[in-house]
Amino acid sequence: xxxxxxxxxxxxxxxxxxxxxxxxxxxxxxxxxxxxxxxxxxxxxxxxxxxxxxxxxxxxxxxxxxxxxxxxxxxxxxxxxxxxxxxxxxxxxxxxxxxxxxxxxxxxxxxxxxxxxxxxxxxxxxxxxxxxxxxxxxxxxxxxxxxxxxxxxxxxxxxxxxxxxxxxxxxxxxxxxxxxxxxxxxxxxxxxxxxxxxxxxxxxxxxxxxxxxxxxxxxxxxxxxxxxxxxxxxxxxxxxxxxxxxxxxxxxxxxxxxxxxxxxxxxxxxxxxxxxxxxxxxxxxxxxxxxxxxxxxxxxxxxxxxxxxxxxxxxxxxxxxxxxxxxxxxxxxxxxxxxxxxxxxxxxxxxxxxxxxxxxxxxxxxxxxxxxxxxxxxxxxxxxxxxxxxxxxxxxxxxxxxxxxxxxxxxxxxxxxxxxxxxxxxxxxxxxxxxxxxxxxxxxxxxxxxxxxxxxxxxxxxxxxxxxxxxxxxxxxxxxxxxxxxxxxxxxxxxxxxxxxxxxxxxxxxxxxxxxxxxxxxxxxxxxxxxxxxxxxxxxxxxxx
Length: 545
Ligand code: PEP
Ligand code: MG
Known about the structure:
The protein is α/β, with parallel strands linked by helices. The protein has three domains: 3-22 and 144-243, Glucose Oxidase, domain 1; 36-137, Orthogonal Bundle (Enzyme I, Chain A, domain 2), CATH 1.10.274; 253-518, Phosphoenolpyruvate-binding domains (TIM Barrel), CATH 3.20.20.60. The chain is 46% helix and 14% strand. The protein has helices at 36-60, 64-77, 80-91, 96-114, 116-120, 122-137, 160-163, 184-192, 227-246, 296-308, 347-351, 353-369, 384-396, 409-413, 415-418, 429-437, 455-471, 485-494, 506-514, 518-530, 534-544, and strands at residues 3-5, 7-10, 13-20, 151-155, 171-176, 196-198, 211-215, 220-223, 260-265, 277-282, 314-318, 373-378, 401-406, 425-427, 475-477, 498-501. The protein has an eight-stranded mixed β-sheet. The site of phosphoenolpyruvate (PEP) has 10 residues, from β10 and α16.
């Protein structure tokens, strides 16, 4: 059976038929309108087909927000004003796809001028235009296919907008030609527990409906199976997942050394299963796609929903991490030639102190109203003075446990100084890799540099862990590297006190820790730390395990 190779970024195996993510259609060269009535008919048919497809998706949507957006798109697609505007464009000489595109461009301009909520809906209008144009041209609908049966999704890469509402019971596996271990695709796949392989060369040539097995642990894709193989792989995988999910309890090594296994979440909806706590609550979700910041009350509600679900447990809230890979329109930050090195993370608070203070006030109100053990941390801290300023702001808002993320090498080098004020550190290894290796985390071509087994990254993690041990303060890891069951042994051996990851990754890491004593983890860490390349570090760790 032929096999393709890529990088496994979300473990597990899934088998099924391949379907490609269709790209948005381009408008063909404009031709003269010969039969206006025929063009009007094409417009009517396209609107009806798109409305029917969106209605079907709205009915199947898992969450109410996605369903609402889809219903709103149905209303737009069938709006008489849109049809009339398209008919007028046909009268003026535009064929159906161009006429719809022009009619929607008018709506778009009106939405943009209106600002506020309507301006936030522009992406939905653009999506609707792509769908209507595709329907006119007889092309497949752009975006995630909805064939009515489960499938393995293949794409060049996935943008966050492609993946809203992605349903893991329908999308069995993900394969992308591009992307890297810290790309959106990888993070999303791990969050949803979908086996995924990125940077898989040759995947674009697999025909739709070919049967494949995606192995997100080994990074391979087997092509050309029989139905029987598909059933067998999926049954074995389901059995393994059920057995793993049944394993519960706090994270610890075989000899009982605790390493808390915490969840990375973006909202209360991501809390699945019984978790020890939350190690990274990414609060950006509340702010995405907005032209005005969420009000303090909106924030109180969102934070309360998470805290109330975890009475007596730790919840580490990260304050707003805006900029670079997480652009937030409401901040209206000036364009920057190099946003990853610009005003992002905590740096935004210097330009907009109101945004941070409102957020801290909302977190404090929600914490006071619930019984969660609420910790707060800032992203993208570079110096000990920034850390001190942030922890003071937290305490002034009545938030007693304040720490910082270590994502910038300068901060890792100054961990002992930072820990004079901060109560804890949390290592964001996605950004720490990016900044240590000067390698854009979204750039699949640089995946080798972004490998967490790189000796320089391990050395920085070790320095932070040692600083934590000396200060008697916790140091966790909340980047994607924490979800690697083998790397988790290195982290535990270095003295990392908690690992935070997508909830679905926790069982495999728990299993790995439980199979090794702390002493073994220390030896594995020592072997990895002494290696000169990521491959040597992996091999040394495996030999020692
Ligand atoms: C990180 O950088 O490792 C991290 C956890 O933060 P994010 O992925 O949200 O930037
Ligand atoms: Mg980060």
